[in-house]
Amino acid sequence: MKRVITYGTFDLFHIGHLNMLSRARALGDFLVVAVSTDEFNTGKHKQCVYPYSHRAQIVEAIRFVDLVIPENNWEQKIEDVKKHSIDLFVIGQDWEGKFDFLKDYCEVVYLPRTRNISTTSIKNTLKNGRSISR
Ligand code: C2G
Q1: What is the CB neighbour count within 10 angstroms for residue 50?
Q2: Ligand 1 binding pocket mutation candidate from 17, 32, 77, 124 (most atoms within 8 A of CB)
Q3: N or C: fewer beta carbons within 10 Å in the chain?
Q4: Strands of the 30-36 sheet, one edge to the other
C-alpha cells in the first residue's frame, strides 16, 4: 500500500488541480491531500475566492482522494509524512527542489504543471468576460 501526499490551495478548482491529484494518486494506492487553510494562504499572500471549508470539501469529494488534512504552516510536512506513513511526496514542478529535504523521509516527485490554466488566469478571464480555452 503506497501512500502518497500532496499539498495545495486548490482555489477555484480547475483541470490543472484535477490532473495533479489524478497523477499523484496514480503513483500509489492511497492519496492524502493537504489543503492550505485561509490563515496559511494569507501568509502565502494568496487571497482565496473560496474559503477553506469549500476548498477542502471539493477536494474531499474527488473519488480518488482518500484523506484531506489542513495545511496550517510550511513546517508540518515532515510531521505529516511520519504521521500518515507517507511513501511519496508529489507536487508541481513550480516547486522543483523546494521540498528535497523530505527525501530523508520519503520519495519526492515534482510533476509538470497543466499548461494554460491557473486560478489567476481564471480570475483574469472572468474579469475580461472571456471563456477558458480548451
Ligand atoms: N497545478 C498544476 N497545474 C496548474 C496549476 C496547478 O499541476 N496549471 C498544481 C500545482 O503545481 C500544485 C497543485 O496543482 O501541485 C496545487 O496548486 P495550487 O493550488 O496553486 O497550490 P500552491 O499554491 O502551489 O500550494 O506547501 C505547498 C503549497 O501549499 C502549494
Answers
A1: 17
A2: 17
A3: C
A4: 67-71, 30-36, 3-8, 88-92, 107-111
Can you name the residues that pair with 8 across neighbouring β-strands? 35
- The residue among 121, 119, 100 whose CA lies nearest residue 110 is 100
Q: Could you tell me the end-to-end alpha-carbon distance of the chain, in angstroms, rounded to an integer?
A: 36
CA 13 to chain centre: 10
**89 in Cβ contact with 27 (< 8 Å):** no
Predicted confidence (pLDDT) per residue in 68-95, tens digit: 999 999 999 999 999 999 999 999 999 9
Residue 77 corresponds to which amino acid? K
CA 17–ligand 1 middle distance (angstroms): 7
Ligand 1: residue of 5, 9, 15, 19 to mutate (most ligand atoms within 8 A of CB) is 9
